[in-house]
Design brief:
Aminopeptidase, 8-stranded mixed β-sheet, 8 strands, 6 helices
């Protein structure tokens, strides 16, 4: 169980290949900051603030995750042996996020950051699959029985878009200028916007690709998710 105020139970989840542990700052912040330092490109399409130290990540977590009933994080743990040269961060393979769009409407948003050593492996497929089973399966089968699960990503993030489609999400469209985006990342320029409204120092923007799986197609989609997991790669 999470120690935060998250709207739903944040239970530990797993299958034969991965474990999703409720995020524990005392355990998980240090390795993720190490990965970000060594591989800053993993945040190219992610709208996180600048993360340079463990304190930076802790400030972000305490402010935006722990204090919000809308947000939670999972640490992904790989249960499969990996080559010795890739074990600098143990089996901690990335993080998954859940954002409650509206608990009354039973809508949730899912996201992922997979560490470079575990990309193009079974990790992303299984982590996403485990969360889909948890969020969309009915309570009688151990799930939350939600009506809609969303996957949103930077419109230029090809890998994320492919992952969503592979897992059965449907592309609903591109939300143009959906959010501001930190400087130094792949963002839309705002020079003209500064001239338009007279302000200075405007942040870049981002177009967002919006995907979803909904409850009344889940019975049809679920076998594909199981098949993807069972491929084990």
């Amino acid at each position: 169980m999470s120690d935060g105020p998250f709207h739903y139970e944040q239970r530990r989840l797993e299958n034969d290949l991965v474990i999703l542990e409720p995020f524990d700052p005392s355990v998980h912040i240090a390795p993720i900051v190490e990965v970000i330092k060594n591989n800053p490109e993993i945040l190219t399409y992610i709208s996180l603030p600048t993360i340079e130290t463990e304190e930076d990540f802790k400030d972000f977590y305490d402010r935006d995750i722990r204090a919000s009933p809308e947000e939670c994080l999972y640490a992904i743990v790989d249960k499969v042996a990996v080559p010795e040269e890739e074990k600098s961060n143990g089996r901690y393979a990335g993080i998954m996020s859940l954002t409650v769009k509206n608990p009354v409407n039973a809508v949730i948003d899912m996201g992922a950051i997979i560490f470079p050593a575990f990309q193009h492996t079974h990790v992303a497929t299984n982590a996403i699959g485990v969360l889909l089973l948890y969020t969309l399966d009915p309570p009688s089968a151990g799930g939350l029985g939600l009506r809609r699960v969303e996957w949103k990503c930077h419109a230029e993030n090809v890998a994320s878009r492919k992952a969503a489609l592979r897992m059965g999400f449907e592309l609903e469209g591109i939300a143009r200028w959906e959010r501001v985006f930190p400087h130094g990342k792949v963002g839309l320029p705002v020079d003209a916007l500064e001239k338009w409204n007279g302000t200075k120092g405007e942040l870049p923007g981002r177009h967002t690709a919006i995907f979803s799986i909904v409850w009344d197609e889940w019975e049809e989609k679920r076998p594909n998710v199981i098949a993807q997991i069972e491929r084990k790669q």
